[in-house]
Amino acid sequence: MSISAWLELIASGLITGGIYALVALGLNLQYGLMRILNIAHGEFLMLGAYLTWSAQSSLGLHPLLMIPVSFGALMLLGWVIHRLCFKRLTETSPNIDIFEARGLMVAFGLMFLVQNFASWMWGGDLRGYDFMTEPVKLGDAQFAGNKLLVFVLALVFAGALMALLRLTLLGKGVRALIQSPVGAQLVGINTRRLHPMMFGIGLGLSGVAGCLLSMAYTISPSMGEPYTVTALIVITLGGFGSMGGALAGGLLLGVIEALGMHFTNPSLKALLSYVVFIGVLLLRPEGLFTRKSRKA
Q1: Do residues 286 and 241 lie in contact, with contact meaning Cβ atoms separated by under 8 Å?
Q2: What b-and-e string marks burial along 226-247, b requiring 16 or more CB atoms within 10 Å of the CB?
Q3: Predicted structure pTM score
Q4: Which residue intervals of 1-95 are DSSP H helices?
Q5: pLDDT confidence band for 106 (50 / 70 / 90)
């Protein structure tokens, strides 16, 4: 293989990994902070994709204009879902283990509810639109313009979330809750305000990821579930609760998949991901990018 071919291969993996990381960051925020394993997370990505497609195909709106709209709409929906479902579970569950189990069942229900709503609303056919499909040359390598844009924007939003968590007072409160929920509450951090806000931000990021995906790929009501599974693999690679680990894990998984599909068979993509997933769980369950003594 020539150098340009290697660059194109690795870059294609990084582009895919950027989306993986963005989806995983939202799910990792919800689980790391609130112990909500939201397996319906990918369904809200799908809603963000359909919102963008609908606005572009029916109203002629530019897809980039739908990024803040998708984020705001899904963040508001996340706040409502937390208030209606998970807040009640928090108040009625006697301990965190029972809360996690009940939350998982609620997330299952949400997954099928959103999937069926999308099928009823938009049908089961594949949807898509043309956006920046012209190739862009970078040296000797060539890439689709929409996929390059998706990669850059995914990194921008991932970086913005990490900056929020590291550089702001709000972020310090969130990180304190992730590291020690009891200690954070003892020093006066208000979980009743932070939890619904962060759950909403997590779903908002999934809406942004769906908006970006619609710019480069076809969409369908069943598209969300594979991204939820991939997000779980990514946060296992990076370490539960570690945002930097989720970003690194997403990019790494994208490159592993690209290389594996090139040198084996594209149909083995899922198998490669699960082999990596099981290997990390068995050999380094705390994640590749975290130390045993720290979680975030």
Answers
A1: no
A2: ebbbbbbbbbbbbbbbbbbbbb
A3: 0.89
A4: 3-34, 41-59, 66-81, 87-92
A5: very high
